[in-house]
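Protein in question kept underneath.
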Amino acid sequence: MDSGLLVLRLVVGLLIAGHGVQKVSHRLGGDGLAGGTEEFRRDGFRGGRLTALAAGGSQIGAGLFLAAGLLTPLAAMAAMGVMTVAGTVKWHKGLWVQNDGYEYPLVLVAASAAVALTGPGRWSLDHLLGQAPWPLWVSVSAIGIGPVSGLLTRTLLNGPAMNGGTTKERTRHAKAAD
């Protein structure tokens, strides 16, 4: 079981961290901070660079902590939050990823919840530091707070989507708004 949890944590955590790296840099196929800012504006978020930095940083931190099995319920909570936001962006396209739907964010939310409930396993920093197992109420709270925080974030940062204009115009607008 510990080896399975290690694989699950590494894959889910590093994928989530990779999403964050793409939001704020040109690594892993990302479009840099300007591209991340424009992506959020296009998807209907306010906040410009700050939103892109907060989202990217949250994804990187949550993903790396989840992969390491460090503060696992809190890392899972943050991962569920950011991936719930991603799911809201794709919600109108339906479930299936072939139509750019929310299937993939949903899988990452469910996997993060499973790790929060199961615990990180023996091959984790939580175990090494004597933090595992976490009390059940902490894990259950994290599973509730994570998605709710994502929905709240989406509600608070909801602005007009920028679907019109050329890519150059949208990028110019995103830079000017910062």
Remarks:
- Confidence is low (pLDDT under 50) at residues 169-174.
- The first helix runs from residue 2 to 24.
- The two ends are 47 Å apart (CA to CA).
